[in-house]
Amino acid sequence: MLSLILRGLQWFTGLLICGLSLSIMAASLSDTIAVVKPSVVGVGTYLPTRQPRSQLMGTGFVVGNGSYIVTNAHVIGGELDILHKERRVIFVGVGKTPEVVDVELVRRDDEHDLALLKLSSGKLPALQLGDSSTVREGEEYAFTGFPVGAVLGLYPATHHGIIASITPMAIPAFYSGQLDPRLIRRLQSPYSIFQLDATAYPGNSGSPLYDPATGKVIGVINKVFVKETKESVLEKPSGITYAIPSNYVRDLVKSQQ
């Protein structure tokens, strides 16, 4: 009888500790989101002759001394329409009328699908970069960005999930017809990326993946570049989300210091 009572107490204590841990994590994430959001921006272009003039292409976040923005290289696209005065911009703030701020492209890393932009003037609150080499499978992280664009305004959304796998960037194709020059280059020297059990959308590309407790960035969400490589053998690509480790971002930022 006594053993049953003790087992019951252990079970109840376990539930209590689990509940407290979840409550603490939720409170911590809420506080962290409030700190992270001012550093998360929309990335796109502004063209005076276009309707709408502003076009949101993805998400970015502020790093370094507050003058630099990190995003995916595929988010910034190719050449601007200089003839019609198209400008590369970021969108700052929350709501229907975010501030449009000019930026310039200062560095592009196509191998890791990363780009570094610089504000034309002023500074914004910056996020700290964590050490992505310490990340372990099963750890929980969050990401904040603009999954559905800015049709109704600029409203950042936060999702969270665990690191499901730390996996090579590329997987072999089943037959040669699935190989193209770009995929072959990635297969020759694959690097490790994070696979998450959370769902992201194209607008999330460039979002910071961060520690819910500290806000330190350990990765950059990627919804296009990675999926083209890792899921090229799938007829129906999955909803799996990937992230580029932040240590590649650190190298990019250091190149400007």
Secondary structure layout plus pairing:
Elements: H1 2-36, E1 40-46, E2 54-63, E3 68-72, H2 73-76, E4 87-92, E5 99-109, E6 114-119, E7 140-145, E8 157-168, H3 181-188, E9 192-196, E10 208-210, E11 217-222, H4 225-230, E12 241-245, H5 246-254
Antiparallel strand pairs: 1-2, 1-4, 2-3, 3-6, 4-5, 5-6, 7-8, 7-10, 8-9, 9-12, 10-11, 11-12
- Helix/sheet category: alpha+beta
How is the largest sheet built, in terms of strand order?
Answer: 1-2-3-6-5-4
Overall 3D form:
globular
Range of strand content: 25-35%
Provide the residue-averaged pLDDT: 83
In the CATH scheme, the class of the domain at 132-254 would be Mainly Beta
Low-confidence stretches are 12-24, 172-176, 230-237
User: At the third CATH level, what is the topology name of the domain at 132-254?
Assistant: Thrombin, subunit H
Query: How many distinct beta strands?
Result: 12
The number of helices is: 5
Helix/strand order: HEEEHEEEEEHEEEHEH
The N- to C-terminal Cα distance equals 69 Å
- Helix residue percentage: 10-25%
CATH superfamily of the domain at 132-254: Trypsin-like serine proteases
Major sheet size, sense and barrel closure? 6 strands, antiparallel, barrel
CATH architecture of the domain at 132-254: Beta Barrel
The gyration radius over C-alpha positions equals 21 Å
